[in-house]
Amino acid sequence: MAKQLMDLVENEDFEMFVMLKKAEKRVAKNGKQFLAMTFQDKSGEINGMYWDASDEDVAKFTAGTIVHLTGKRESYLNSPQIKIVSMNLPNNDQHLVREDFVQAAPMKEDDMKAEIDKIVFSITNATYSRIVRFLLQKHGEAFFEFPAAKSNHHDFEGGLAFHTISIVRLAEHIVDQYSGIDAPLLYAGAVLHDLGKTIELSGPIGTTYTLAGNLLGHLSIIDAEIVEAADSLGIAQDSEDLLLLRHMVLSHHGLKEYGSPERPQLLEAEILHDLDELDASIMMMKRAIGQTKPGEFSDKIFGLDNRRFTAQQKRNNLDI
Amino acid sequence: MAKQLMDLVENEDFEMFVMLKKAEKRVAKNGKQFLAMTFQDKSGEINGMYWDASDEDVAKFTAGTIVHLTGKRESYLNSPQIKIVSMNLPNNDQHLVREDFVQAAPMKEDDMKAEIDKIVFSITNATYSRIVRFLLQKHGEAFFEFPAAKSNHHDFEGGLAFHTISIVRLAEHIVDQYSGIDAPLLYAGAVLHDLGKTIELSGPIGTTYTLAGNLLGHLSIIDAEIVEAADSLGIAQDSEDLLLLRHMVLSHHGLKEYGSPERPQLLEAEILHDLDELDASIMMMKRAIGQTKPGEFSDKIFGLDNRRFTAQQKRNNLDI
Amino acid sequence: MAKQLMDLVENEDFEMFVMLKKAEKRVAKNGKQFLAMTFQDKSGEINGMYWDASDEDVAKFTAGTIVHLTGKRESYLNSPQIKIVSMNLPNNDQHLVREDFVQAAPMKEDDMKAEIDKIVFSITNATYSRIVRFLLQKHGEAFFEFPAAKSNHHDFEGGLAFHTISIVRLAEHIVDQYSGIDAPLLYAGAVLHDLGKTIELSGPIGTTYTLAGNLLGHLSIIDAEIVEAADSLGIAQDSEDLLLLRHMVLSHHGLKEYGSPERPQLLEAEILHDLDELDASIMMMKRAIGQTKPGEFSDKIFGLDNRRFTAQQKRNNLDI
Amino acid sequence: MAKQLMDLVENEDFEMFVMLKKAEKRVAKNGKQFLAMTFQDKSGEINGMYWDASDEDVAKFTAGTIVHLTGKRESYLNSPQIKIVSMNLPNNDQHLVREDFVQAAPMKEDDMKAEIDKIVFSITNATYSRIVRFLLQKHGEAFFEFPAAKSNHHDFEGGLAFHTISIVRLAEHIVDQYSGIDAPLLYAGAVLHDLGKTIELSGPIGTTYTLAGNLLGHLSIIDAEIVEAADSLGIAQDSEDLLLLRHMVLSHHGLKEYGSPERPQLLEAEILHDLDELDASIMMMKRAIGQTKPGEFSDKIFGLDNRRFTAQQKRNNLDI
Amino acid sequence: MAKQLMDLVENEDFEMFVMLKKAEKRVAKNGKQFLAMTFQDKSGEINGMYWDASDEDVAKFTAGTIVHLTGKRESYLNSPQIKIVSMNLPNNDQHLVREDFVQAAPMKEDDMKAEIDKIVFSITNATYSRIVRFLLQKHGEAFFEFPAAKSNHHDFEGGLAFHTISIVRLAEHIVDQYSGIDAPLLYAGAVLHDLGKTIELSGPIGTTYTLAGNLLGHLSIIDAEIVEAADSLGIAQDSEDLLLLRHMVLSHHGLKEYGSPERPQLLEAEILHDLDELDASIMMMKRAIGQTKPGEFSDKIFGLDNRRFTAQQKRNNLDI
Amino acid sequence: MAKQLMDLVENEDFEMFVMLKKAEKRVAKNGKQFLAMTFQDKSGEINGMYWDASDEDVAKFTAGTIVHLTGKRESYLNSPQIKIVSMNLPNNDQHLVREDFVQAAPMKEDDMKAEIDKIVFSITNATYSRIVRFLLQKHGEAFFEFPAAKSNHHDFEGGLAFHTISIVRLAEHIVDQYSGIDAPLLYAGAVLHDLGKTIELSGPIGTTYTLAGNLLGHLSIIDAEIVEAADSLGIAQDSEDLLLLRHMVLSHHGLKEYGSPERPQLLEAEILHDLDELDASIMMMKRAIGQTKPGEFSDKIFGLDNRRFTAQQKRNNLDI
Asked: Per the UniProt entry, what are the Gene Ontology biological process annotations, in alphabetical order (chains A, B, C, D, E, F) (predicted)?
């Protein structure tokens, strides 16, 4: 397999195909324009500056473009950086496809669909089951494509479904280990809890917040979707089942400060919140440690209170 | 007019008709049962203990009953208290009606309805106007009967509508004084902001939280009501007008800590929040000062960070 | 099986044997002495007042005594309470043993020992394994008898080992589900994390904090134990393994505010903290819901930020 | 009317007269000196860099200078920026006056004086009235010239008086809408509440904090002024009126964290605080939205907890 | 010397003369009135209940009265309590004086005056010196009689001066140990910092907050006193010396949350704040430990974040 | 004595020998490499940029090198900065030694050792005395060389011992002024409290945190050292003396948020914490004021909640 961005070591000269994740025109202190770029392939991403960019360059090198890059892997303020030697569009006969350069969930979409199907099958309560099926039907396409976040964790194609599956697996173990948990409610809440992100976020590429995302947040978005689904399915708005399911999604951020209008008041709601945090934390820590040299400390992780993490010196690199 | 509860001075002997707001059976340290009571008339309420209550007494003296009370107005831990001399049910020929003993908003229901009608008329945006009319139609009866809260402020019959009207009046002044405010949005938000309380609370008497109130809160409740109303009226869920209106009600508690899933991000949403707090504060302070002797400090007000308030010594008593 | 305390319904008359968990002499407002008691059997505990206690009664009815109790199960301020009709010491020919009245972990001690042995066996790192074995050898007896806390959660005989086993089970699942976790470090940390409680607390009965517990806390206590163990075993104090293991136990409260001198900086340390909280939360919620009538809200749970919890109306009672 | 700074659209070439609000000498990464400038006219202000500034340029282009500017309106990090083509001092025969380039309150000074006179006239309590008149007499000139702040809100000439008038208008409406408010106390507090800023701040141009401002703050400054005024006017220091008025100004920041040594304990003090915040919030939001393209979100507003604000897409630009 | 209250051991029968510090009429659950009392002598104070008090008793046993008390020293909820056997007024021929029963500073007033004189003498800056002398002249009598607080620490006769002297002694040591400190400023600030308490509090007996105390606080009170003193002495209000001295007293609570409108911005102001806290902490801890049995933990100390303190088992009792 | 860095005034041309404290290679916006440098001598330190550095320069000018510097003292963003004219290595015949360029404690090491000896001599409790002597023996060399911190305060050679001595001096005064303090415990805690920094930090030059420092913190480090010392000395781990001494060091950060696993619960522990903060504050303030022009405000001090400090205009510069 060809060498990729994350394989480069400090001061290594290279040439390879990469995709431009970001290409922002800026003006240098000396008045000349340049492009602040992020290069990306499946292995990860690195920044670089394209100095003295002509207007033609600016038009040619936009986000999403695949380029042939010759350069050197250096460091700037302790972060890796590419010093660009030359950068060109590929020839027409070089058949390069976006899918080869984009980071994605470590499961195939079909496998994710199968696993979600399996868990839905185990939701034995009719109200929960019908609403979950209705909403997966309605938003299913986006559900398997979207990231789980704009950044921080699971911010890659399919990340939303992959994060959901991770939580479901944890939930299944909890149901096995502890008695007295309402499994259908927990599974239904787990599947739906972040589904509002398909409306909150713009999509898998160049992810931004939509107006609805900014003004309502994905908790109120999915809550309203559940309410509408119930109307469509003829489920009474004051049925206890419906109130409990709405509470599951509204409370899953755990704290009001984090945007939940009510804190968890059900055993299953508290567990859903805890598992959501646990999976997100593990993903953030694994990524941070994976990008850190053995024996050193990672950058500060915003989503974990700006802590730095380390690992044993003899540890191998981590997969996602 | 006959003497009322709030007219009594310390150590005054009296007899009068009052309503029992609360009558809880408890067991004294000596093992005998007694009734912890709250007596109520239009002027306010005072607690008292009915010692050595027989089972018959417990059955007879329940919340909502009107009684003839003979007693003395004393103090216990700096709070007024009634020492009960005797307490009897009224004779059959004494025609006493509940309405004469219950605290209510200082406006007649018809006047409140007229003022709400007037403000709805001035909501010139079609989306806002149709949704407001739809929801007032659906919940109008409760809207004019319910209190605005279980306790703290506007916790009396009609308090919800009266509080809404106070905010609307403030909003009208703000629209007059400052340019550039979207008046229809502000008015629509003001009318709807607390309407979810008709589902969150159980009703005007012996007010408690419903299951929906506990698990969802009145912000998510009214948000869902708006979403359903839009469906009924054929208004698209992704129309900008609808998103803004939903944001108005969801954000009106101002802080996430207070249950708003998003903080205000519209000029009108911030103003609505500010006016909501202003009106509630004024009501709480006026009540506290009204129950305090000139020159002294009130009890701690829970809803105002446990502050005590005072007033000039020469100040007259305050109306609601 | 004979009826137990938790089987009684409101206003039910009963007679049964119970153990006195607490028996405090107090003076009533009328100047007479009484005993504030907590009755206990394996099903749970209920309070009651023994009025007009003679000096002889005070001497006779002390904590730990088993009594024959005749009474009625009533309520006081929404909590169950026993109205005592009569209370006597058992006859000499009634062979009642403490073990039949004391709440304990829902696993037999031998089963817990076997499960701990199994996990220790899977700690393949020599440093961790030797230290864990050394300290289990040193504190093993207390480890399987002590509660995990003075109150709140796992506050019963064997609770410390049972809580530890629950966390280990969760940890094993996490190691299965996610790649890149240092399993021996996580398991060693899980087994040792609360072992300092055998020095922090006085024992399984009438549990209080020792002077060492008050002045040092169980985190610094177990940290020092690890340091001493390493000295005994000839493990260098500056070995990376030792530093990581000490960090696991010192950081497991997650936040400095909760007594960890350092926050978790290892993937495994953060996971240990999260699983510790998850297991404790589930235990507290299950207990609270188990003591609550279907459809109602539990008392406020101190260890969960004073939240109240509820469950579906149709839910069955929960086991521990 | 000639085109002004805020009329320029992105990439528009222009020439116009502007005033230099700021002109700071700095050294570029390449070692050459440049001037970091803020250009200003009545419409607003934009930054720009004057590269390779000679010592002569540095001496010539100082804050307060009016210049003839040729340039292009560009963007830098999402903020508007001027690319300077040339910059010259005006000819001697071009009669340009400072007043034409400086942002000021949207009321004429005479109108503001008349409105303040009117409200002072309505302060019917002799103590309040005499102190207010005394202090307006003493600090009146600065009161009508100073800004209300160094930045954030009302940070323009006459802003202090204009902000005061806005609060007085709100206060008058509150007195109309609610019974039981001590209007003279509220009005006197409103007029005086920020008058200490005439000593806390250096003046309307290049506003900085004075030593008294830094060490005492404007609350203690105006408090001391009131105390001295009372001495001059023969008002007893322990008169209730005086204590209440001092409390009004000392408590008007509402929270101790915001510098009020005591929180509001009078109905009127709490209202003054609320209206002060309301007017400042509205001003900050209107400015932020006015500088934001329809449909986008503003920069973070420091004075509003770093929130971003937006407005309806169809909204017109807002005046101050 | 006769036995005093603090000499009594649990269950000891006694008779002695004590003073009533508090005697509050209350009504028991059985409807009878009783007196909640606090007995006091120089050694300390203990509570007790006087049951079934007649109206005559209520009139006779008021705060400040000296009585002959026969009783038993018991415990209630872990606090010492007196069970009253009999209580009578002393005979006319028993010459008992208030001074023998009241706790006071452990220095004679004359000695405190001499020590304050000495420190004032060492304030070599004319501005500071003149203001300090002026204000000690004006408030000197109260300064040497008042407590330093209503409760918590130095809440005894002469406590204000004694606390001031303690801080001055610490300050002198700091000036000796560290170079570069403006000693006259530090000493002047130390002497004046709490002098406003002579206006904030009502006096040495039955200490309450005055209206000025509640509405202004002692920081703004002494600040205004300094301003008036400067006027009387012809010192310019904008002199740097005066601003620094005002800053010393205004900032001495250290944090805005604790009522300082500005935080310390002078070396001397920060030191004054630190020494003030240090002396108060030591006094609170010494009192708490002095009232605790060796080897046990004290009650929670409100002024020290509700911490409990302990001491070595072999420690002797502590003097003030 | 030759002119030093801190003697230079703005725009002064100079040549002198200095040491390079920092020399970091960076890349300028124009793509050329430069060295970001900090120059140091005994008087203090100033930054400067060495533009267009060749690879040879980068190799030659590393941290710790002494150079002959010709330049001009300028300002950049209100901070002093050196404009470099030329920079060369000294000739071989110029005998320059590191000690002449490094900031160190203002006491000679021998004097510090003598003063520590004296205080150890006064620790009359055998347990404390033996442990203190044992640990000073073990870590004494580092104790007298290390700084007390990586930055903030006492961050110079010998700073750890000097800071310890300052606290001991304060403690001695406290013992003199207040009765009832366990002096040996306080002195032992004072000597040991920061000794763990000899393991937490890497050393006096280019100080960084060690792995043990990051993962354990110096509180747990010294706690473990005490435990091991007790083992070596045959002192029982459960002796009260040992628990108290461990509590002294573990609690000396005062708040859990600052890394103390337990807050102070002994009079002596609280005093130690207070004196530690007091000495650190004074050092930080003196340094900040010493680097600030009379009449101006210092930079924000991180360790003092980002406050700025000022001093009287007529104040002289401060020594350390």
From this structure: rRNA 3'-end processing
CA distance E9 to F244: 28
Scanning the structure block, which residue is given the tokens 């006459």?
D158
Q: Dump pLDDT digits (tens) for D186-196.
A: 999 999 999 99
| C228-264 CB burial, b ≥16 within 10 A, e <16 | bbbbeeebebeebbbbbbbbbbbbbbbebeebbbbbb
Average pLDDT over residues E301-309: 92
Residue closest to B275 by CA, chosen among D304, D275, D280? D275
The pLDDT, as a whole number, for residue C42 is 82
- Partner F contacted by D55 (CB < 8 A): no
Please report where in the chains the tokens 């739809």 appear, as a residue. B134
pLDDT of residue D251: 98
- Distance (Å, rounded) from C-alpha A214 to C-alpha B243? 10
Residues of A in contact with B229 (CB under 8 A): none
- pLDDT reading at B273 higher than 90: yes
| pLDDT range class, residue A299, cuts 50, 70, 90 | confident
Q: What is the pLDDT of residues E73-120, one digit of tens each?
A: 887 766 778 999 999 998 877 778 877 888 888 899 999 999 999 999
Q: Please give, rounded to a whole number of angstroms, the shortest distance from the CA of F256 to a CA of chain C.
A: 5
* Residue D318, pLDDT above cutoff 50: no
Tell me what the mean pLDDT of segment C39-64 comes to: 88
Read off the tokens for F111.
């004097």
How many other C-beta atoms can be found within 10 angstroms of the C-beta atom of residue C294? 13
Residues 202-221 of B with CB under 8 A from C: 211, 214
Residue whose pair of structure tokens reads 């108060």 in the numeric block: E280
Averaged confidence pLDDT in chain D: 90
Domains of chain F from N-terminus onward: 5-100 (2.40.50.140), 109-283 (1.10.3210)
**What's residue B24's pLDDT?**
86
Structure tokens at D305: 């907890």
Pure H helices in chain A: 55-60, 109-121, 126-143, 159-177, 183-192, 197-200, 211-233, 240-250, 267-290
Handedness of CA D158, D163, D164, D170 (dihedral sign): positive
**CA pair distance A259, A263, nearest whole angstrom:** 10
Work out the average pLDDT over B72-98. 82
> How many angstroms separate the Cα of D211 from the Cα of each of D75, E240, F125?
38, 8, 52
Q: Could you give the residue ranges of the DSSP H alpha helices within E210-263?
A: 211-233, 240-250
pLDDT at B142 over 80: yes
Distance CA E273, CA F304 (A): 13
What's the confidence (pLDDT) of residue E268? 97
Q: What is the mean pLDDT of residues A241-266?
A: 97
Q: Please list every residue in chain E whose beta carbon sits closer than 8 Å to the beta carbon of residue F169.
A: 177
Contact C18, C39 (CB under 8 A): yes
Q: Which residues 227-266 in chain F show a CB within 8 A of chain C?
A: 227-228, 231, 237-238, 240, 243-244, 246-247, 250, 256-262, 265-266
* Backbone torsions φ then ψ of C125, nearest 5 degrees: -80, 130
The answer to whether B125 touches B185, Cβ cutoff 8 Å, is yes
**Residue F212 near residue C238 (C-beta atoms within 8 A):** yes
Q: Which of F228, F262, F266 sits opposite C216 (nearest CB)?
A: F262
DSSP class per residue in B81-148? EEEEEEEEPPPTT----GGGTS-B-SS-HHHHHHHHHHHHHT---HHHHHHHHHHHHHHHHHHTTS-S
Residues 62-81 on F with a CB inside 8 Å of C are none
Whole-angstrom CA distances from B42 to B87, B320, D179 are: 19, 12, 19
Helix (H) or strand (E) holding F146: none
Average pLDDT value for chain B: 90
Rounded CA-CA distance E168/C207 in Å is 47
Percent above pLDDT 70 for chain E: 95
If residue D149 lies in a helix (H) or strand (E), which one and from where to where?
none
